[in-house]
């Protein structure tokens, strides 16, 4: 049933205007930028655009991972807490490594290595519990969300973990320095996006994800190793969280229980705004990236105007998200034939 | 057989309970209930509560302080019930998670005959507590505004980063705006930065892009101020005489003030140590020969380089 409606919707879109569906999020983003420019011309200043792109990198990188999980019919609610916990452990490890390795590059590399191992490990736990443990992904990741969040609170003794001041000097450029005019986080974002796009659209693994998300039983009969592919999507998600954390830590050099709160919802929102189907079976990495940019731009624009009451920020964000998704529903006009 | 065993168990349990209550009567039992520390300020409060427990129990061997923290209002209500039924407390020091849902549970503790001290957030009905200990939110806003006026002149521009939309935030903000009115200082805009570093960083980045001329920032809170300073340094605007006023009394900020930091030259006190003040005063209600009941409102002291040392607790997590 999922397959039927998903396929026919996709077909209907292809028949009518494939471009509108693909361009929906891009149009929404363009519209937002025009509004931003009209509110204040310095919206398009180089500084502001750089800030915007750099800020989008965190949610964007995590959302690329979430695209795989959601395309394969899963969900991961633990990413925000996971980022906070990984950031916390990274800081602890680097602080304690100062005595042995000094405050130079090796310590930073050690911290990054730890982050990557933890991300892969955490993703594998989510994946294995979902596939081998046969527990709903929603429940597994709801559980790990609570576990990781309380772990970082415990590590920080309820307060804030701060990176040793000397390491901060070495590590700081990873967030603040630029290469060919673009900050490093943006380059990481671009690299992750390209890899994600290739993996989803140009490999057998990507096709398996889509197949499993459309119909898991059929995928299983087609000799796809469903458990392995699904576990791998969670590992990719974990890896993306580590990359995001590696570029997040040098920004303020600290982690606390308020780090990464609600990132999971922002990542899922970015994925859905980008056109990926929440039920699985259809995924778009390019759309996800636009989705992440849209979310960050909304926040940025709200900071650029004092016309809307502070208390209504959430309302504006919600409205824009809903309108952005409406914009790309080209099939709801021809509706009936597509819905079958 | 079974019957006799059951009776035996009951008898033993009865004796134990009796022994327990007899021992309890020797000591003054004071329950201290507050939210689980999940952010820096609350972690500081937890630390100060533990310090006060150690200090007071050493000073008065017949005083027993029982610290309990709870992750949400419901759990705190249950914790209060346990303090009465299990520990049979003589007094309660409570920092309510939220005013409304905790009013009834605290009233029930009151009905058991215990002395009640309420800290920081008031209850929604007057007259339940014997003693109220709190920081001063409007005063925090006023003191910050007075400092702004002392440093700035007519026509200077400031931006404000507010906390989470709550009563506390409104009290601080309204008092600040009232005090700054008529001084000729322009408030360019105010946005919520939710009392955390990440939001402080992002909101300040946007303010810096939007306003080319800012003379000072009221960050209202030290965590926000940390984010603001990072944004200033990134934009390279930390050297042009702008200053930031936070609030609360975070140890890193106090240390900076002691060392003569020009970016954050002062702080306005809203101390997590107020729980210790409340515990002291509650013990005094049993031990002092003077009256204790009433309201104890702490000053929102301006911390400057001269007095910073007396507010510096390097071992506290906040």
From TrEMBL, chain A:
Pfam assignment, any one: BPD_transp_2
Topology with respect to the bilayer: Multi-pass membrane protein
Stretches assigned to coiled coil: none
Domain of life: Bacteria
Keywords linked to the UniProt accession: Cell membrane, Membrane, Transmembrane, Transmembrane helix
Keyword Transmembrane: yes
UniProt keyword Iron-sulfur, yes or no: no
Protein's UniProt name: ABC transporter permease
Subcellular location: Cell membrane
Transmembrane residue ranges: 20-40, 52-70, 77-98, 104-125, 137-156, 176-200, 231-249, 285-302, 308-327
Automatic annotation (TrEMBL), chain B:
Superkingdom, taxonomy of origin: Bacteria
InterPro entries documented for this protein: Peripla_BP_I, SBP_2_dom
Protein location: Cell envelope
This protein's UniProt keywords: Signal
Signal sequence annotation: 1-24
Pfam family, one: Peripla_BP_4
Alphabetical list of SUPFAM superfamilies matching this protein: Periplasmic binding protein-like I
Main location: other
Thylakoid as UniProt keyword: no
Domain Periplasmic binding protein: from-to ranges: 30-261
PANTHER family listed in its UniProt record: D-ALLOSE-BINDING PERIPLASMIC PROTEIN-RELATED
Sequence similarity: Belongs to the bacterial solute-binding protein 2 family.
Annotated protein name in UniProt: Substrate-binding domain-containing protein
């Amino acid at each position: 049933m999922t397959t039927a409606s998903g396929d026919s919707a996709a077909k209907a879109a292809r028949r009518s205007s494939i471009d509108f569906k693909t361009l929906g999020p891009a149009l929404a983003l363009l519209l937002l930028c025009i509004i931003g420019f009209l509110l204040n011309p310095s919206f398009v200043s180089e500084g502001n655009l750089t800030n915007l792109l750099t800020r989008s990198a965190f949610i964007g990188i995590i959302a690329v991972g979430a695209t795989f999980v959601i395309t394969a019919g899963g969900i991961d609610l633990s990413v925000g807490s996971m980022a906070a916990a990984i950031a916390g452990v990274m800081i602890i490890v680097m602080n304690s490594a100062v005595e042995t390795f000094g405050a130079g590059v090796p310590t930073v590399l050690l911290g990054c290595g730890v982050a990557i191992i933890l991300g892969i490990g955490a993703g594998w736990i989510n994946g294995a519990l979902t596939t081998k443990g046969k527990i709903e992904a929603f429940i597994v990741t709801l559980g790990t969300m609570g576990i990781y969040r309380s772990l970082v609170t415990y590590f920080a003794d309820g307060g804030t973990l701060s990176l040793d001041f000397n390491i901060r000097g070495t590590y700081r450029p990873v967030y603040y320095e630029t290469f060919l005019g673009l900050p490093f986080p943006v380059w990481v974002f671009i690299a992750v996006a390209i890899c994600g796009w290739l993996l989803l659209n140009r490999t057998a693994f990507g096709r398996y994800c889509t197949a499993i998300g459309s119909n898991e039983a059929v995928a299983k009969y087609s000799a796809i190793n469903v458990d392995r592919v699904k576990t791998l999507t969670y590992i990719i998600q974990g890896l993306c969280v580590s990359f995001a954390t590696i570029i997040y830590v040098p920004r303020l050099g600290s982690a606390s229980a308020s780090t990464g709160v609600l990132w999971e919802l922002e990542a899922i929102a970015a994925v859905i705004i980008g056109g990926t189907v929440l039920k699985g079976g259809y995924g778009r990495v390019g759309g996800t990236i636009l989705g992440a940019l849209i979310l960050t731009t909304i926040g940025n624009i709200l900071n650029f105007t004092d016309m809307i009451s502070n208390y209504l920020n959430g309302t504006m964000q919600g409205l824009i998200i809903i309108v952005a998704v409406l914009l790309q529903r080209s099939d709801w006009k021809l509706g009936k034939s597509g819905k079958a | 057989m079974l019957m006799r065993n059951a009776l035996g168990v009951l008898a033993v349990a009865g004796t134990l309970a009796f022994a327990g209550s007899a021992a309890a009567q020797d000591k003054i039992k004071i329950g201290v209930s507050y939210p689980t520390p999940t952010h820096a300020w609350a972690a500081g409060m937890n630390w100060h509560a533990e310090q006060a427990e150690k200090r007071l129990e050493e000073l008065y061997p017949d005083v027993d302080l029982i610290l309990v923290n709870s992750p949400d209002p419901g759990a705190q209500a249950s914790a209060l019930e346990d303090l009465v039924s299990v520990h049979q407390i003589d007094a309660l020091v409570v920092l309510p998670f939220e005013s409304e849902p905790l009013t009834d549970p605290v009233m029930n503790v009151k009905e058991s005959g215990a002395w009640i001290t309420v800290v920081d957030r008031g209850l929604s009905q007057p007259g339940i507590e014997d003693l109220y200990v709190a920081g001063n939110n409007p005063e925090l806003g006023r003191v910050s505004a007075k400092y702004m006026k002392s440093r700035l002149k007519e026509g200077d521009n400031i931006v404000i980063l507010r906390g989470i939309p709550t009563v506390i935030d409104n009290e601080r903000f309204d008092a600040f705006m009232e005090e700054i009115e008529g001084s000729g200082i322009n408030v360019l805009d105010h946005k919520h930065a939710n009392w955390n570093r990440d939001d402080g960083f992002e909101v300040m980045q946007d303010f810096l892009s939007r306003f080319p001329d800012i003379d000072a920032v009221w960050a209202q809170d030290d965590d926000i101020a940390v984010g603001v300073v990072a944004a200033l340094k990134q934009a390279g605007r930390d050297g042009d005489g702008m200053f930031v006023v936070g609030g609360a009394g975070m140890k890193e900020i106090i240390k900076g003030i002691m060392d003569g930091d020009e970016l954050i030259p002062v702080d306005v006190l809203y101390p997590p140590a107020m729980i210790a003040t409340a515990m002291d005063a509650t013990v005094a209600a049993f031990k002092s020969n003077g009256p204790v009941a009433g309201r104890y409102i702490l000053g929102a002291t301006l911390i400057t380089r001269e007095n910073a040392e007396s507010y510096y607790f390097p071992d506290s997590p906040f």
